[in-house]
Amino acid sequence: MAVELSGHAGWGGTTSMAMSLAGALSALPLARLALAHGRRTALTAANGLAALGTVGMVLAPVLGSYPLLLAAALLVGLGAAGNLQARFAATDLADDVTRARDLGLVVWSITLGAVAGPNLIGPGAALARPLGLPDTSGPFLLSLAGMLLAVAILQVGLRPDPLTTALRLGGGPPAPRPRLADGLTVLRRERAVALAVTAVVTAHAVMVAVMSMTPVHLACVAQDPASPDEAPGAAHAAQEHAAHAAQEHAAHLDTAPDTFVVIGLVISLHIAGMYALSPVMGHLADRWGRVRLTAAGLGTLVAACLLAGAGRGSVPVVTVGLVLLGLGWSAATVAGSARVSELVRGPDRVLVQAVPGGPGA
């Protein structure tokens, strides 16, 4: 949608970037809200604002507004940040023996929606047409329903609030105005915590960087499979050709349904790699060790990037690379986040989780 509304293939990853930026910048406000009023309030606020963002996503193609798309993506990013912070609700009252497994179960619960989401393009389009909306608006109508359902479930189901209960059992409330600097102080003081946060930050950055441009790349491959493998001397011409192909693809969205099916399948498999084996990653982190599994996850990310880059002209090879990318992210994120949760206690834990781009972002 970003390519279609902006008219430039190079802007294809800006919506994902906006979501990630919003997640990083909203981490501290969400942490403050959680410390003051509990996880339930913070997660409800994140999902409520994300629901508003999905309304913007529905309207952006109707109005042909790229700025509205970016603004809406920022709000949707708050929901993504809330989803990532939700996994820590499982660790607020968990013991050290099963902390990673409990966290992994929460991450795994995202699998159904995350895998189904990219494949809702067809049903979403069918829903949009009777309403007089563009096909690209349809999936976000389903997202809106999901966000509102999440708000209802949080309000009804997350009782008693795990964070407020943990703080009460741990010896009292936090400081009235928690600051990001307090979390950074913990990172400077505790080298092991800093390493764990750095590992999760790195894993997330690599995953977003590769995944956000994959749909645009696959669209270019579908237009001209030979173009990604042209000789280095023709690199500039190849880039111009790829940009033109992506723009042509965006201008004729209704004529290439197979491309969307392929993109949806690849992204679904990538997301399955991220979430489906999270309980296994949690079990391995508890049994094998958080540090070892984090290192294995980072190594898998390196292998994924090398494989996807080497086989950039082949959809099957890119798909395998994206699956490995998801598995590496899962291992590093589950193990690294569990490591942070076991090393930091009390209010400081929530503040460390709020470091932008860190375990909670």
From TrEMBL:
Coarse class of the protein's main subcellular location: membrane
Entry annotated with the keyword Transmembrane: yes
Keywords: Membrane, Transmembrane, Transmembrane helix
Membrane-topology annotation of the record: Multi-pass membrane protein
Any one Pfam family match given in the protein's UniProt record, by short name: MFS_1
GO CC term (a single one): plasma membrane
Transmembrane segments: 16-35, 42-60, 66-84, 105-128, 140-158, 192-211, 260-281, 293-311, 317-335
UniProt subcellular location: Cell membrane
InterPro entries in alphabetical order: MFS, MFS_dom, MFS_trans_sf
Keyword Transmembrane carried by entry: yes
Cited SUPFAM superfamilies: MFS general substrate transporter (SSF103473)
GO molecular function: transmembrane transporter activity
PROSITE patterns: MFS
Residue span(s) of domain Major facilitator superfamily (MFS) profile: 198-361
Name of the protein: MFS family permease
